[in-house]
């Protein structure tokens, strides 16, 4: 599939990477990467998590230096030592995680670090004129005087793009720009990108969402295991073919087969309300999770999902309502008691809540299970039994590790997550609270985790799935709720719903009362 | 299979050795600046005396110094294990020592019970005094560093007041005062038999303090508690990752209180080797600063009982060297410089070895993950 971007080369490519290799101790992050980006195009770079996209972009943006290979920008060979060098060469980066100061206005954020001065004083008038000009030219509408903290995600992203343009960038790198956006916002972003392209700018678009890539890109380069495996044109490939190039094998699908939902309610929420400060962050949420059922919760992050999970796990007190586990009121129970009673938890941030990074795997197996066998024997931690059970998890869940004494931090995200899922499935849980269970893991681990969730559901586990991955939600859930501003605003049938519909509820564009 | 763990331990040890060597290099420079010769200084430090009796006395002096330092290091380490900075060990041991000495002086009991009561009083006092900052932290969010420092001032002044006032004993000798002396039943027998077992002469004076054996026992108990029990695991988990411990059902309030109180209870023992072994009362000449030195010892020992024991011995060795250094015309404050340099180097070396270890680990995992996997696509 290595088709011919080499054969028909116009005089000057915007960016040309030739034989880029970057080694980290023991790992080759990039190996002989070759990419040619034509000017005035949107060039997508796709690959699964951990394929080496981020390293490559860090090299192109001067954050890391390649061990081998050449970079040419507009036909001239360059060596970047710092991002400053890259910016001077006209390359700008829009990071996945926004780097904006919330307490400053849009205008202040844009000029931050590149402030125009007149007689030693900040010259905002010139900056304002320049910003207005840029916004006009590229169709990036934002009010320069609004505080960034008041802006939505889409607007913030536009500010980031403006910030880069303000510094004179002609080549934009966008790192997973759609990860934080809902479908409507993605459409707006794409409209913006088309305008940028029309204005002669070059966009390098990093993503693993194949539909989007096919939709917006003029050319696509696929990276697998640190090297470029194919350069294709979107018209020549299907999403499935692209995915196969990325994974190098069959693509997993999140489809659940026949329903295993029973009528036995395991976890019940009844008018659960959580307050934070004087604000209600979760408002009168009522729903059941039945044995053998996966209940999905969709929503833009920050609409109460975190609080919902914290309330169920006993990490935050309820302001009103109650939570039942197998018809027993557990509202006042401690986290430990809830865990012992059979609530398992895959946290959304595994490094923050799920692992002791500097402890060996077997100790991570004990975490959260320190009061139950096999980890516990009287007041003691049963080290031998914990080790043995960790070995079982490593084998059953295909955790790639040299031994159970390896420190958790040495594992890749996918393997860490498989260990967590394996741990939480241990000890016969009744309910599994899974928050973003496949976030930041590679496709192989993702399909494995989906498989485990499906098996557990078939075995009668009640699962609450909170996710930002709409395909995951639609594919796995038996019941799907949408959470918006702390309320459940919709109860949808996952087999009928479209991503557009979901997006509408998630952004509040469609309002509907909870049935 | 456990080679990974072994290798980590070896690396830690190597780091500590390098740190001590570097510290001696730094100290040599200080000695040269002070007009001495590093070689003479080193010889003086290792000069334990000519006769067997002198050597036994020197070793006794070192062990008697190491015992309270070891207990102090343990007390600090319990807190450090869960990122709880109990700077208040200093105050806790002083207040515990004076209360225990006073209570012990008031009682007349058979020896084993008398000693047990004194030890328990010291532990309870130290524990209760540490409960104050623990409660302040849990219920009012007061940083334990600040509250324990403040409580140190209170403890020191309170001890100074008590020894002159309510707890003062009968006899006064000039400016020094002390609590009433312990009766013989409250005096800990010495451990000179350890020397006699090897056919060595008994050290002079009060001999080798028998409390050394209690300290070793405490060390073993703490090791078992921290490394093998559920409680120890929860302390460790809280220290490594607070939010993860919370999500795993560890009650952070309960952990703060129990770790702090345990730390204070062990701190309560620091003054006892001296009181039960030599002075038999708490006086104005009571050895100060052991709590603060305990912080350095715990750091040097990397919060592990065995490491703390080695660190306490090293510090005691250096402290003992102060006198011979003076004979060799080298300012004894060189010892403080060496101690300071060691702690600094150990902290640096600790961070460096930690990073090396992590990198090794990642490399091993990357290599190991690729090898044993029978078939798969992801790395």
Overview of the molecule:
The complex is a heterodimer of chains A (515) and B (379). Chain A has three domains: 1-90 and 170-245, 3-Layer(aba) Sandwich (Rossmann fold); 98-168, no CATH class; 265-506, Rossmann fold, CATH 3.40.50. In chain A, helix 13 crosses helix 14 and helix 14 runs parallel beside helix 15. Chain A is α/β, with parallel strands linked by helices. Chain A is built from 17 helices and 24 strands. In chain A, the strands form six sheets. A six-stranded mixed sheet of chain A has the order 6-9-10-3-11-12, sandwiched between helices. Chain A has a six-stranded mixed sheet with strand order 18-21-22-15-23-24, sandwiched between helices. Chain A has a four-stranded antiparallel sheet with strand order 2-1-4-5, with helices on one face. Helix content of chain B is 72%, strand content 0%. In chain B, helix 1 packs antiparallel against helix 16 (333-370), helix 3 (52-80) packs across helix 14 and helix 5 crosses helix 6 (144-164). The relative contact order of chain B is 0.19. By secondary structure, chain B is mainly alpha-helical. The longest helix of chain B is centred in the last third of the chain and has 38 residues, at 333-370.
